[in-house]
Amino acid sequence: MGLLGKFFHHSSGNHEEEIKSKGFEISECSFECDSCTSKFPASLKFDEEAELWDSTKPFGLHLLVSTGKSDWPHDATGESNTLSNAVAKWGSDHSQKYSQIGNIKVSTSSLSSDEFLTDDDYIKEQKGDILILPFFVWVKGVTIKETSSVLSSLIPDLIKFRNEKVTDLQIPTTYSTSFPSVRFEIDTSKSYVFLCSHRTRDKRCGVTAPIMKKEMDLHLRDLGLYRDVGDNTPNGVRVAFINHIGGHKYAANVIIYLRSSGKIIWLARCKPNNVVPIIDECIVNDGKVWPNNIRLLQKLDPIDW
User: Fold this and answer.
1) What is the DSSP secondary-structure string of 185-230?
2) What angle do CA 229, 231, 234 make, to 5 degrees?
3) In which band, very low, low, confident or very high, does the pLDDT at 26 lie, cut at 50, 70 and 90?
4) Between the chain's N and C termini, which has fewer beta carbons within 10 Å?
5) CATH number at 59-186
6) What share of the chain has pLDDT > 70, as a percent?
7) DSSP result, the chain
8) pLDDT given at position 115
9) β-pair partners for 258
10) What is the reported pLDDT for 9?
């Protein structure tokens, strides 16, 4: 089946009007780049037929715990006495309270923590880092015991600051007074891209995510947008791994956060030859998409700090 035929086969009505109503543009470029020669192993099988549109639920808050790893236990946030478990518990306990902004998603990530932790530290009460998206704010050096209090203090303020279109955000001194060992920092990245690499849950994600990241990093380097660990030069793009987000059969899943526009793009059935178009159209051109590969589109109020 040719590309055009495949497009219409999957997308009844292709959702173009819905996409535009959400504040996104339809890309006129091909979703495939002929110059990319990388491929997934032929042994991997994916669902190439099911409708992707709205195949996952909207969310308004995404909390990502830094672990420096690319694979986790089957229940990545289920192990007691870990920071990821404390964050997940806070998310579950507060989901109803913040229902007006959407579901709360909690993930473990390959992002590195500022704290130098050993493997055993994740089953002890140690400090760690949490990235709060789509607010592009870090909570660094927070302990398990502090997690609930810190998030309960910070999250309502971030929502308020965004609603009031606060610019040049300065973290209130009350946070520093109440939590003297915790650092609150603004993330100046242009975009974050997350790939499910949770091999323990599904081998396909463990195989496809590293291939996708390698291709993304190469193209981002060509564009001067790549940011390695420790490089905090503003307006870069960071690509990282996260645990299971649903839809293994649609791998590779790609979640993109765009800072300046508040757009969230969740693509699926992505292959290595889609990487260049994804970066050029979704990130550089601020949210141009292909109807056939969308699981979810959201446009939230942008932040300007």
Assistant:
1) EE---SEEEEEE--TTT-HHHHHHHHHHHHHHHHHHHHHT-B--TT
2) 130
3) very high
4) N
5) 3.40.30
6) 92
7) --HHHHHHHH-TTTTHHHHHHTT-EE--S-S--TT------TT-----SS--TT-S--EEEEEEEE-S-S---SSTT-STTSHHHHHHHHHHHHTTTTGGG-EEEEEEESPPPSS---GGGGGSS--EEEEEETTTEEEEEE-HHHHHHHHHHHHHHHHHHHHTT-BS----HHHHHH-TT-EEEE---SEEEEEE--TTT-HHHHHHHHHHHHHHHHHHHHHT-B--TT---SS-EEEEEES--S-GGGPSPEEEEETTTTEEEEE-S--GGGHHHIIIIIIITTSEE-GGGEEEEEEPPP-B-
8) 55
9) 191, 263
10) 40
Question: Could you tell me the pLDDT band of residue 299, with boundaries at 50, 70 and 90?
Answer: very high
Q: For residues 133 and 296, give the distance between their C-alpha atoms in angstroms, rounded to a whole number.
A: 16
Sorted by where each begins, the domain ranges of the chain are 3-55+189-299, 59-186
Q: Specify the CATH class of 3-55+189-299 in words.
A: alpha beta
State how far the alpha carbon of 238 is from the alpha carbons of 116, 234, 256, in Å.
20, 11, 10
Tokens 């564009």 -> residue: 223
Q: Assess whether the region 3-55+189-299 and the region 59-186 belong to the same CATH fold.
A: yes
